[in-house]
Write a structure and sequence with these properties.
Layout (H helix, E strand, L loop, with lengths): L49 H16 L2 E7 L2 E4 L4 H7 L8 H15 L1 E8 L5 E7 L4 E6 L2 E6 L7 E4 L3 E5 L11 H4 L1 H19 L6 E4 L6 H15 L12 E4 L4 H4 L1 H16 L17 H28 L8 E5 L2 H4 L3 H13 L5 H7 L20 H10 L1
Antiparallel strand pairs: 1-2, 1-11, 3-4, 3-8, 5-6, 6-7, 9-10
Amino acid sequence: MSFLYRNIDKIKGVFKRDVQVIPANEYNPPANLRAKAGVDVNNNTAMNFTAVYAAMRIRSENIASLPKVVYEKTSKGKEVAKSHPVHRLVHYKPNSYMNIFVFWEFVNAYADGHGNSYAIIERNAVGDPVALWPVHPSYVHVALVNRKKFYKVYGTQGFDGTYSDDEMMHFMLFTKDGLTGVNPIVYNADAISLGMAATKFGQEFFDKGGNIKGALEYEGQMGDAEFKKFMQHYENSSRNFGTAFLEYGIKYKQIGISPEAAQMLQTKIFAVQDVARIFNVPPHMLADLSRSTFSNIEHQDIQFVKYSMRPSVKRFETEIESKLFFEDETDSFEMKFVLDGLLRGDLKSRGAFYHFGIQDGWLTRNEVREMENKNRADHLDTFLYPQNLQPADQGNNKNNKE
């Protein structure tokens, strides 16, 4: 299996126009992304809104921190396939310049922000994957030819070319055509821009010393000397937010709108909740505690793992199993992002869970020690069970004999 398709007749003319070379740090989506709130929204500017930044960071850091394991199915159950080349890539080091945390943080950040995340698969002479090279989404153009996907990469340093579907890992969000995922920031530009506009309004408000624009009304005429004297007295009396003293019958008329009337704080709260819906993150994780209590935050954390993290890791697991394993390995090996650590409750809940597992005979004490990151101990691998419990058929036989 080749690493890179360069000049193959069957894919010539697939990409009828070259992909524009756009540096990753200068990516500018189309101008029509100017939202109704009057703020330009794209993948770069949206990160300036703290809720978007926090949502993407929280999801990416959590996914990057999960243990990633390749399991081999054996007659005794599942065992970690430590010597498998895929395990080394996803668990230890994906390429020569990134550690495993940075790689998965990068992959998820672009999947969440752009709707698509790409990594080129480098293989050795026998076809085993030896490196995963992430590519910025703006460098990749996808096409479907003869019912097969191809990827054109253009604008990178050392990875330009056309790749087959087997040579590219493509993690995409919700898709409308099956080829690429929709960009959540582009599709929700209006909702995100509302929060950005509220933030901009607050900045401008405080940049002007917290004063709302107004007008000074005077029915008569004032000479230069009088005007200069009045302005001097007005500025001295109103300095440091003091009460201004108006002379000559001059009246102050407010022509702006107060932050309270503009509902700036409520608008920002609504915008944060919109971002929480877009990225499927509980609002309390974005510091919005308006609907959170001490008793329901733990349940929201569990929902975050079930309904936000699990679909994301399943997307990664499916693509890895499809692209990195050989066909004859799919029945023997599986890829798992271990979510157990995120589902662990407090000490009391965990203690009760372990107690019932050991007492009912489906957990050994050494398995519990491993879950708590403790070393195994001697004589703790035996399953325990209460003496007053026994199989139903044996109980019936005993009763019948009596």
